[in-house]
Amino acid sequence: MIREATPEDVPVLLAMIGELATYERAPEAAQATEPQLKEALFGPQPAAFALIAEAGDAPAGFALWFRNFSTWTGTHGVYLEDLYVRPEARGSGHGKALLAALAKICVDRGYERFEWSVLDWNEPSIGLYRSIGAQPMDEWTVFRLTGKALHHLADTSRANGA
């Protein structure tokens, strides 16, 4: 079963985010707190949304996503930030069901794109994505600006009066 997350799910979402970070070999990178996640998902202006996959009454996985926008299509899209299925629930269709639920959101809302990133060594996930018809964007490279470089660039903007 796939359902929308509720505020009561924040602790289990945070736990699964930690599990995902460990799986992705970066447990120290998961620094979000319950108040931050609750505000992002359920505050007055939600910045993100989450779906929960359940096996019986137990959370088996989640998908956390947000809307993006394409200037080329003139429509919103879905960007999947995180997809995670707990090890004991893998192979039971939860990942595909979460992806299908997000595809339905796209179609129902007239969004023309559904995108995400995957670590290049994560062959099980890449196999799943290819099996549903997803295509890698080989000509694109993801860039990220964080930490000192982010602050330095912001300081440059302030110096220019912006």
Short description:
38% of the residues lie in helices and 23% in strands. It is an alpha+beta fold and 162 residues long. It has a 5-stranded mixed beta sheet, with helices on both faces.
Give short descriptive properties of this protein:
single chain, globular, alpha+beta, 23% strand, 162 residues, Aminopeptidase
Can you characterise this structure?
With 162 residues, the protein is α+β, with helices and mostly antiparallel strands. It has 5 helices and 5 strands; from the N terminus they run βααβββαβαα. A 5-stranded mixed beta sheet has the order 1-2-3-4-5, sandwiched between helices. The chain has one domain (2-137): Gcn5-related N-acetyltransferase (GNAT) (Aminopeptidase), CATH 3.40.630.30. The longest helix is centred in the middle third of the chain and has 16 residues, at 94-109.
